[in-house]
């Protein structure tokens, strides 16, 4: 209970309070017209001019109800309290106008848009004013019960709307965080793969330049091509992030694009094998298989010791697809290395789709990455 009171007291104002708009002016106009008509036409109203003026002066306060909810509630309910004091000091019958029920809107706005401190102070003030009014009017138990239920109903509705809005904002933050993680994973996969290819080509160029100078031109062209592709993909992703409207960009690669990763005249050589029906995979699964194979190949090229071959094997097994990427590099004895960002991102990809991923030394040496994904992505 103590923790709840402290959290309520330190609750900040909602950050999404809309500015004064056309509907707010319409609301003020409707209540003002109602107060003016009632003040003139209502028979038997005591202190008719004063009550009408106070009611008309109260209506513009509705425009403050979101920007200054505590001040609006204090002013509005203060007018109600003033009328109760006048009725107590000089009994003159009923002094209230039905149109002054607008103060219930101020109570609703206090709970919906106020901070924790404003809610506590404002509702305490309202409770005092209501108690004074019930005492002055000598209300019976039925009236006290009905009035209390009405006030609590407005408070409860405001609390529900506030909670739903806060829940929606939290959901939006969770979605943004998930998108950031997915974007970080995509950037890592794309940049790491292309930069690794550039590094391999640059190393090969250093060797070839001294023996076969004419081959150096081909290596430089390959480096330029990889760098251009990396830059184009980075620009595409940045454009998607910066522009609110949909932009046209190339679709994500899939299993059908895996043969493009094969390389026979480099070290290590890359061999790609596809088996089974792989043409009707769900889009997320199709893209994930390519990214998993791409990242596994990147890791093999960068980290496999003395590797001469990297094999990429994808095959359909019933309602699942199995990806296996293995190399024939030399493994060092000792504990398994810690998982880096690449392997962690790969494992997250597989888990999000309802699959599994295992990575570690192979039984015959080298390093093996094996992922099993469902043909249809899980919800």
Largest sheet: 5 strands, mixed
Helix/strand/pairing category: alpha+beta
Order of helices and strands: HHHHHHHHEHEEHEE
List the total number of helices: 10
Helix content: 55-70%
Strand order of the largest sheet: 1-2-3-5-4
What global shape is seen? Answer: rod-shaped
Describe this structure in words.
The protein is of the alpha+beta class and 379 residues long. The chain has 10 helices and 5 strands. Among the domains are: 2-139, no CATH class; 254-379, Histidine kinase-like ATPase, C-terminal domain (Heat Shock Protein 90, 2-Layer Sandwich). The protein has a 5-stranded mixed sheet, with helices on one face. A hairpin with a 5-residue loop joins strand 4 and strand 5. Helix 2 (22-41) runs antiparallel to helix 3 (48-58) and helix 7 (141-211) crosses helix 9. It is rod-shaped. Residues 244-249 have low confidence and may be disordered. It comes from Lentzea cavernae. Residues 288-376 form the Histidine kinase/HSP90-like ATPase domain. Residues 179-244 form the Signal transduction histidine kinase subgroup 3 dimerisation and phosphoacceptor domain.
Keywords:
379 residues; alpha+beta; Heat Shock Protein 90; five-stranded mixed β-sheet; rod-shaped; kinase activity
Structure described in brief:
This protein is 60% helix and 10% strand. With 379 residues, the protein is an alpha+beta fold.
Topology:
Layout: H1 2-9, H2 22-41, H3 48-58, H4 69-89, H5 103-113, H6 116-136, H7 141-211, H8 213-242, E1 269-275, H9 283-303, E2 309-317, E3 320-327, H10 341-352, E4 356-361, E5 367-374
Parallel strand pairs: 1-2
Antiparallel strand pairs: 2-3, 3-5, 4-5
Helix pairs in contact: 2-3, 3-4, 4-5, 4-6, 5-7, 7-8, 7-9, 9-10
């Amino acid at each position: 209970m103590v923790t709840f009171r402290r959290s309520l007291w330190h609750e900040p104002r909602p950050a999404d309070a809309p500015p004064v708009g056309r509907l707010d002016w319409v609301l003020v106009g409707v209540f003002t017209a109602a107060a003016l008509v009632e003040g003139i036409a209502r028979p038997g109203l005591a202190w008719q001019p004063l009550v009408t003026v106070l009611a008309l002066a109260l209506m513009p306060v509705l425009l403050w109800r979101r920007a200054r909810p505590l001040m609006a509630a204090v002013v509005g309910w203060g007018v109600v309290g003033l009328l109760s004091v006048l009725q107590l000091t000089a009994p003159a019958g009923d002094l209230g106008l039905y149109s002054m029920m607008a103060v219930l809107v101020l109570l609703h706005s206090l709970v919906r848009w106020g901070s924790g401190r404003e809610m506590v102070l404002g509702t305490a003030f309202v409770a005092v004013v209501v108690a004074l009014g019930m005492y002055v009017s000598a209300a019976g138990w039925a009236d006290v019960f009905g009035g209390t239920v009405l006030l609590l109903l407005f408070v409860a509705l405001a609390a529900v709307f506030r909670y739903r809005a806060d829940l929606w904002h939290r959901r939006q933050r969770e979605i943004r965080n998930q998108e950031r993680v997915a974007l970080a994973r995509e950037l890592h996969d794309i940049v790491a793969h292309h930069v690794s290819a550039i590094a391999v080509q640059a190393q090969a160029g250093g060797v070839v330049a001294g023996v076969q100078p004419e081959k150096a031109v081909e290596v430089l062209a390959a480096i330029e091509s990889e760098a251009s592709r990396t830059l184009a993909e980075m620009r595409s992703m940045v454009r998607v992030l910066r522009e609110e409207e949909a932009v046209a960009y190339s679709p994500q690669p899939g299993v059908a694009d895996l043969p493009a990763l094969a390389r026979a005249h480099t070290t290590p050589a890359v061999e790609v094998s596809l088996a089974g029906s792989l043409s009707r995979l769900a889009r997320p699964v199709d893209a994930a298989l390519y990214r998993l194979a791409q990242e596994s190949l990147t890791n093999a090229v960068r980290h496999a010791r003395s590797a001469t071959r990297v094999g990429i094997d994808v095959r359909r097994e019933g309602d699942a697809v199995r990806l296996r990427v293995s190399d024939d590099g030399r493994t060092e004895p000792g504990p398994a290395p810690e998982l880096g960002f690449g392997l962690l991102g790969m494992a997250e990809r597989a888990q999000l789709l309802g699959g599994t991923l295992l990575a570690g030394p192979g039984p015959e040496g080298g390093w093996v990455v094996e992922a099993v994904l469902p043909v249809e992505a899980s919800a």
